[in-house]
Every structure is written in structure tokens, then in C-alpha cells.
Amino acid sequence: MPSSTARAVIDLDVTGPTISKHLYGHFAEHLGRCIYGGFWVGEDSPIPNEGGLRLDVVEALRALEIPNLRWPGGCFADAYHWRDGVGRKQDRPVMVNSLWGDVEENNHFGTHEFLALCDLLGAEPYVNGNVGSGTVQEMSEWVEYLTRDGDSPMVRLRKANGREKPWRVPFWGIGNEAWGCGGHMRADTYADLASRYATFLHNHDGNELYRIAAGAADDDLAWTEALMKVVSCLGCTSRPRDIFQAISFHYYSFAGDGISKGSATEFTDEQYYRTMLKASAIDRVIAGHSAVMDAYDPHRRVGLVCDEWGTWWEAAPGTNPRFLYQQNTLRDALVASLHFDIFHKHAARLRMANIAQTVNVLQAMILTDDDGGLVLTPTYHVFAMNKGHQDAASVPVHVVEKPAAVTMGDDELAPLSVSASTKDGNVLVSLSNLALDTDTTVRLDLRGRAVTAARARILTADKPQRHNSTTAPDTVAPADLAVTLRPGALGATELIAVLAPHSFATVELSLT
Q1: Global pTM value
Q2: Which positions make up the signal peptide (predicted)?
């Protein structure tokens, strides 16, 4: 097997911006089997549940320490009217989900069920409001219903529906993809609407809202600029107007032929590398949005949020194509690991990210079936191995010797990706070897702090098409990785690790 070498310097005593735990957020939409059959099985299901919420799914996600969960969409948010999903279940009207499969939904999973799910997960709720087909009053009253104490019409309604005390609900999305399924608006039109909606989303009883304006697709920087003009002016140094606190964007990865093209499990080497090139380009996209925002907000008080990201393939054969159910391979896991290194790099501006989606849809953490089967995907394992980065201080990594780039026409892919952070006297280093047929010996020069121990794990398989199933749940699963620690030059410590082709590894360092 071909091999390559790489060397990186990590200054353990130098720290950068904090990597917000919310970069590890998740997304659950009323789409396919994400909610019904994923999170929600109903109180009468033989599958163990608490109030209808599937407990094996909850347990698996609690292990990831997921920081926030976005709901009810997505495109579905702009067709959802929250009053239809509160009160006695038998009184809730059936709705037609015309966006995703034209199926009928009984509204048994609504606001109270979502907040109960967040409580079980220990995750902060991220509620996406309806701008496309709703009203300012409707969304304002939803905020009041959820977060106000004391007495008011919405408080009385909440109490009548069984909840005495308000919830803490910090994150609110002002519509979704207003340039597309959320209304096909022009940027200036939506910017005015976002300002109007945000004005009437009030803080109640100490619940401070983090209002997120629906932003661009990919690298539409003009959309971001239109929203920044609402809160600031070009070159201003004063604090931005406190209308919304963040701007989102969405970014999906695929093999070059477009979203929803190509098999999730059968792909060529070229398609693999095209996927990695698309995933790596989110670095350029984040940098572009950040540059626009810096021009209006140099102190970076307004956050950037990537509240939909992940891979998007053809639906699995034999499934409803509008349910967006796809298998999840090692290729998908490496898209996730690469994204996280890039997210860490931009931690000064990027405040939140939400993978699409959590269960049974697109790049899911978990796949379930109606018989009680549950599969942890390779992407799940990346989240688990990386969770030590949450709310840790980023640590600079300087790759001083790089493996040869992979060339695809005019494009070049750097096959090694690295990031590091420190928290509570420990350091976590993440390493991805994206090369298909080359192992890489990585030498890390660890400087500035004494390293007393190292523990490493690796996620790989014999080929990137490998995935997990109910009959083979551990085809792609973490394993221990042997590493060498030895004295380096000038008092540093040298760590040596060999990364197999198409692999992701983490190294936990103990410091003195």
C-alpha cells in the first residue's frame, strides 16, 4: 500500500476562540420517518417509550451530548401552524404534509412533545417559526405561549394544555429558505420581513431570544449583505442594532452532479473525491459570509449559523423518494469530520451548526425500523469521538509537511485535515485522512505543555462504501489506535500515529 508522511506543530499553550458546543447541533423535521417512526412511536407502541418518545433513540443521542435540536423544519416550518399541535391529541386536526410525500399527519407530535423530547435529551430547543404562510402575530404568540410566566391569554392556554411553568426556549428561526420553499422572495423583501418579525418576538421573564434570520443558499453573499444592512452599515464600528442576533446559511455536499443525485452506497473513486471537494469548499463559503459580515460588524457580535448541512443522495431503493431516507457510509462520516475541522477554524464567527437530519433522513445519526431495530451510523461515531471539542478553546495547528494533494482536473484536495482544542487540562486532536489508497504517518510536535498520556481511536473500514445495518451494526465502528509518544526537540513531545486510508481518528492528550 502506498504511504505518505505529514508533520504538524501544535502549540498547546496558545488558545484561540472557543468552539461553541452549538456547532454540534441537530435538526429534526417533519419529513419522512424522522419524527413519526423515528423520535415518536406513540404511547401505545410496544417499542419502549416515554410519553410516546422512543427511548432507545433518546439514549443514543444523550450519549452524544447534543446541545440543541432544530424543529419543526426546514421547509415544513413555513407550512406549520403551531396551534394545530397543542391540546388533547384526539382534538388535533389532521394536516397534509404536501412538501414531503403528500402524507397525512395527525399532529400527535407538537410543541409539548418537542419540548419533552428536548428535556429528555438535555438539548436546548431551536424553534423555527412560520414566515412563509404564517403571521407575525402567530409567531409572537408562540413565543409567549412557550416562555411567558404570570398571566396572559397564551399563558392561560398553555396551562389549560397541562404545562404550568414556561420553558426556556432560546433559539428562534425567522422562517426557512425564504429564497426557495419559504416563499421565493428577493433578499431585500425577506430582510424587511425578518426585521418586522424579529421586532415582535419578545423576551419574556428572563428568556432571552437568539433570533436567527433565514440566510443564504451556499455562497449567496448578496443575501447575507442584505440582512447585514438591516442591523448595521458598511464600515460601522458601533454595536449592530439588536434586531436579530444571527444569520443562517445552508450547505449540502454531493458528488458533483447536484443534490439528490447518485447512490449513497455505490460510488466511484472520482465520486468520492468530488464529494470531499464539495465538502471542503464550505471553508471558502464560511470565509465569504464572514468577510461580508466583518465589513458591517467588525467586532463579530452577529453570529453566523449553518443550520442545515450534510450529504444528500438519492433515496434508498424501495423507499418513498420524498422521505429522503438514505444509507450512511464511511464517506458520509468523513464529510462530517472534515466539516468539523472547518467549523472549528471559523469558531470566532460561526456560532451554531445543525446536521440534516438526526434520524432516518439524509445524513442521519440513527436509522430505525418499525420492529424496534436501531442502527448507529458512521456519522454518529464522528459526533461521539468529537464531542470533547464542545465549548473547548481552539488550539492552533500548523501543518508544516503535507501529503501530496489529490488532483481532480483543476481542483486539488488536501488529504489531511486536522484540528485541536483544549478543555479541563486535556487536549483533543482530530485527524482525517481523506486519501483512498494511501496511509499517512503523522508526526505531531506538541509544544508548550508537558504531555503525560495519549489515547487514540480510529474510525475506518476496508472501503469507504461500508455502512452499518441491523444485521451488521459494527461494520464501521471506532477501534483503539496505537500511537507513540516520545521526547521531541527543544523540550517538545512528539506523537506519531499512522492513519489508514479513508479514516478519521481522535487523540486525547493528558497535560500537566
Answers
A1: 0.97
A2: none
